[in-house]
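Data availability (excerpt). All sequences and predicted token strings are deposited with the supplementary files. A representative entry, Elongation factor P, is shown inline so that the format can be inspected without opening the archive.
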Amino acid sequence: MATTNDLKTGLVLKLEGGDLWSVVDFQHVKPGKGGAFVRTKLKNVLSGKVVDKTFNAGVKVEVANVDKREMQFSYLDGDDYVFMDTETYDMLNVPRATVGDAANYLLENTLATVAVNEGNVLYVELPAAVELLIAQTEPGLQGDRSTGGTKPATLETGAEIKVPLFITTGEKVKVDTRTGEYLGRA
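Structure token line:
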């Protein structure tokens, strides 16, 4: 347990209903009249929903113990993604639903941050950008290069992204893992 005075960005709280909420932003407010309070912006760890919540100053809140470890994606086992702890070499099976959209940019030996709370995997977080090979894309036409248009391309992971017309099959490109946007050649 902690008080609202101990709140800081990144702290994970366990609020009513047992949901885990990460503190995105907080502000201690001491109005001229009345008691002090803490205005917070909280993000649900599982759903990503962001809400504003106000606590009275000094109120006790339950802090969740979230263990974030750097792990390496080893292989796909049925519907589970198997990650290996880079320090202890322990293997951890993570369900496809928990990996979510990160699966579109996940290759073997890719490093990722895996957050675990009480033995349950909360989420898998990839680096902001990854380098992937273009498995297949249509050739750009000679007159198209100056228009600045885009075309669909399939990555080596099977995900499809939009790339500029000058990109060809077999090139390595940088991709933003949060938005799926092309960032440039690798």
